[in-house]
Amino acid sequence: MLIMGVGKSKIDPCPLSLPWGKSPSVDMSQRPHEADSKKSDDISLRDIAEHSHGALTPSGEREGTEATEEVPEEDEEEVFLKFVILHAEDDTDEALRVQNLLQNDFGIKPGIIFAEMPCGRQHLQNLDDAVNGSAWTILLLTENFLRDTWCKFQFYTSLMNSVNRQHKYNSVIPLRPLNNPLPRERTPFALRTINALEEESRGFPTQVERIFQESVYKIQQSIWKETRTTLQRQSIA
């Protein structure tokens, strides 16, 4: 995901980890003269003090600098998610509960809820990444869902995406949770045409196993990888 970088600073070419009392150009294992040895100590301490001022700075500043310098250059590999849960802002806790239920009790992982998408990015970009970076889009149908204009936009956009993209057909899953579910009679007509998961139903486990099939996930994952590869080649060209 939703499926769903950090800056790097230039590293000081002078090593910060030279041991005290040693110099790169002086072999301290040979001590024929005490005077020469003491002189070597003085030189190495002075050299380290000049080039490794970070060792004498406050610990907070030093830790911040080291953390920045040690950031790995490689980008983290993105993962194609099994599902993303779209939910109202007031339903974050309920969304997390359903996420844990699907992942821990049914082994459908990895999954994400929309509240976990990266901060500081446009909602539309996060929505696109969430829907197209996962195999299934779960709409958490609660009383709060229809009160949120953004949620209405989410479910209409998700439905249109599933219609316009063949491999996304039947990928939108309405789910009525145990807590504060949206009554069927108040569910928008567009969603009433889709069989919703009913958590309170005795057939809920069977429904989950029938919908979230590994074979379907593999097909969508393959298409997702091919699409990303094509876009990367186009950006390089």
From TrEMBL:
Highest taxon listed in the record's lineage: Eukaryota
One family name in Pfam for this protein: TIR_2
GO MF annotation terms: signaling adaptor activity
Cellular component terms per the entry's GO annotation: early endosome; endoplasmic reticulum; Golgi apparatus; late endosome; phagocytic cup
Entry keywords, A to Z: Cell membrane, Cell projection, Cytoplasm, Endoplasmic reticulum, Endosome, Golgi apparatus, Immunity, Inflammatory response, Innate immunity, Lipoprotein, Membrane, Myristate, Phosphoprotein
Localization per record: Cell membrane; Cell projection, Phagocytic cup; Cytoplasm; Early endosome
Ranges where the record places region Disordered: 1-72
Keyword Phosphoprotein assigned: yes
Main location: membrane
GO biological process: inflammatory response; innate immune response; phagocytosis; positive regulation of canonical NF-kappaB signal transduction; positive regulation of chemokine (C-C motif) ligand 5 production; positive regulation of interleukin-18-mediated signaling pathway; positive regulation of type I interferon production; TRIF-dependent toll-like receptor signaling pathway
Domain TIR: 75-231
Xref: InterPro entries: TCAM1/2, TIR_dom, Toll_tir_struct_dom_sf
Record's compositionally biased regions (Basic and acidic residues): 30-53
Function per UniProt: Functions as a sorting adapter in different signaling pathways to facilitate downstream signaling leading to type I interferon induction. In TLR4 signaling, physically bridges TLR4 and TICAM1 and functionally transmits signal to TICAM1 in early endosomes after endocytosis of TLR4. In TLR2 signaling, physically bridges TLR2 and MYD88 and is required for the TLR2-dependent movement of MYD88 to endosomes following ligand engagement. Involved in IL-18 signaling and is proposed to function as a sorting adapter for MYD88 in IL-18 signaling during adaptive immune response.
Assembly: Homodimer. Interacts with TLR4, TICAM1, IRF3 and IRF7 in response to LPS. Interacts with IL1R1, IL1RAP, IRAK2, IRAK3 and TRAF6. Interacts with protein kinase-inactive mutants of IRAK1 and IRAK4. Isoform 1 interacts with isoform 2; the interaction occurs in late endosomes and disrupts the interaction between isoform 1 and TICAM1. Interacts with MYD88; the interaction decreases after IL-18 stimulation in a time-dependent manner. Interacts with IL18R1 and IL18RAP. Interacts with TLR2. Interacts with RAB11FIP2.
Name of the protein this chain belongs to: TIR domain-containing adapter molecule 2
